[in-house]
């Protein structure tokens, strides 16, 4: 009898020990296990803010066509830009038909008819555009990427025509069922009547008068290497440190590597062995990229989806560009320069999995050490600056932007006109 009681007590102690071990390992309640797999990352606190993908899906600018070859342009976060875009996001677009882009003279249409044009730069996947605009599902172009949307009143002004342009440049899709009236378009066009006049030249817009922006000097902080290691490595304590001849530092756990360029305050993280998680879908890749940044550094300001493209062998690149704005003037992109990397977050992906991550470690804090109004030239002065670049390559876009630089005081954002070439390169107009 005593032996049976001893055996029962021993079994009970073993069970209690197992239960206690389970609670210690998994920290119930909360189900936050101490044991993690190598695919888990530690979410870093006190860094950038989290953001929703929808907040980054907006046009780079909105052009307003007034008829008689008169135009104006509104930039993100300006009052009329927000008003036009918010109204269009509530409209329905359906009944798509596809045409070859050369079927119509689009320059003539922009010059003759009253309308508005949303420009999305390198292109926005339809699957993402459907998150911010009421676009009906349609197999005809659901796999497309849209560079711009043109809405205008027809010649006799009894019909509104709506066209979505493929970023490939060869086809255009007309939404034959759109709940927009002629009066809707007129009201939105009227917003631009008393604004700065622009002229359409070779596909881009030149203001005939100077435009105003705010030059600003921001106080800054710097994310530490330890913070980034904690965020990006499964176990930062086992990383090895390597110093390169160019002064950059590399931290690696033999699978992943984090290169830190201290002179530029820039990181380049690579995880080439990351297991593929799904298909190479542009829309899903962007959503995965946003989630990754949310968990590994966050966002230090307002960003816009700038680029999403296949780079071959199931590789995909996603680029987010930072914007900065001051009140009524709107928000403008910050140009990432080879001499000073700042303003873009770039992610390399393979079938939905992040394999590369580049970003600045600099973030802005409260307060400014410089702020003043500046005037960017328009008219002939601007045309003369453009003329000096025309021999380099074909210019496809012209826009105001911020040129960043670093000083002892902090980060300086200087307004400049920026020209974009057909090959994707950009040049700042001094």
Automatic annotation (TrEMBL):
Recorded source organism is: Fontibacillus phaseoli
Please name the Pfam families in this protein's record: YycH (PF07435)
Q: Where is the Regulatory protein YycH domain?
A: 3-423
The record, for InterPro entries, names:
YycH, YycH/YycI_2
Q: What is this protein called?
A: Regulatory protein YycH of two-component signal transduction system YycFG
């Amino acid at each position: 009898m005593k032996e049976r009681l001893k055996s029962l007590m021993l079994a009970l102690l073993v069970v209690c020990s197992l239960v206690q071990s389970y609670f210690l390992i998994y920290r119930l309640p909360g189900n936050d296990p101490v044991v993690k797999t190598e695919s888990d990352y530690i979410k870093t606190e006190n860094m950038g803010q989290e953001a929703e993908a929808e907040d980054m899906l907006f046009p780079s600018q909105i052009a307003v066509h007034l008829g008689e070859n008169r135009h104006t342009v509104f930039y993100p976060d300006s009052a009329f830009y927000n008003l036009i875009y918010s109204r269009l996001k509530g409209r329905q677009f359906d009944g798509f038909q596809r045409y070859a882009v050369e079927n119509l003279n689009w320059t003539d249409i922009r010059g003759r008819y009253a309308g508005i044009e949303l420009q999305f730069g390198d292109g926005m996947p339809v699957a993402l555009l459907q998150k911010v605009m009421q676009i009906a599902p349609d197999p005809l172009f659901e796999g497309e990427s849209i560079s711009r949307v043109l809405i205008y009143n027809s010649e006799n002004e009894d019909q509104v025509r709506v066209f979505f342009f493929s970023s490939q440049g060869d086809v255009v899709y007309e939404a034959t069922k759109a709940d927009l009236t002629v009066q809707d378009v007129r009201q939105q066009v009227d917003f631009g009547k008393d604004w700065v006049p622009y002229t359409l030249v070779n596909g881009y817009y030149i203001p005939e008068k100077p435009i105003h922006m705010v030059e600003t000097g921001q106080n800054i902080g710097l994310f530490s290497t330890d913070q980034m290691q904690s965020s990006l490595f499964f176990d930062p304590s086992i990383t090895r440190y390597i110093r390169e001849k160019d002064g950059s530092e590399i931290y690696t756990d033999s699978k992943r590597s984090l290169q830190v360029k201290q002179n530029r305050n820039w990181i380049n993280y690579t995880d080439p062995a990351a297991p593929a998680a799904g298909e190479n879908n542009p829309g899903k890749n962007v959503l995965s990229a946003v989630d990754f940044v949310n968990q590994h550094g966050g966002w230090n300001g307002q960003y816009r989806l700038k680029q999403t493209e296949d780079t071959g062998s199931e590789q995909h690149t996603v680029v987010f560009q930072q914007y900065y704005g001051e009140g009524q003037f709107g928000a403008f992109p910050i140009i990432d320069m080879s001499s000073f990397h700042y303003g873009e977050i770039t992610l390399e992906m393979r079938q939905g999995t992040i394999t590369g991550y580049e970003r600045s470690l600099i973030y802005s804090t409260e307060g400014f050490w410089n702020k003043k109004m500046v005037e960017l030239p328009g008219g002939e002065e601007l045309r003369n600056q453009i003329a000096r670049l025309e021999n380099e390559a074909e210019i496809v876009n012209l826009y105001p932007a911020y040129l960043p630089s670093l000083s002892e005081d902090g980060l300086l954002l200087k307004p400049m006109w920026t020209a974009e070439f057909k090959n994707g390169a950009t040049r700042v107009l001094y």
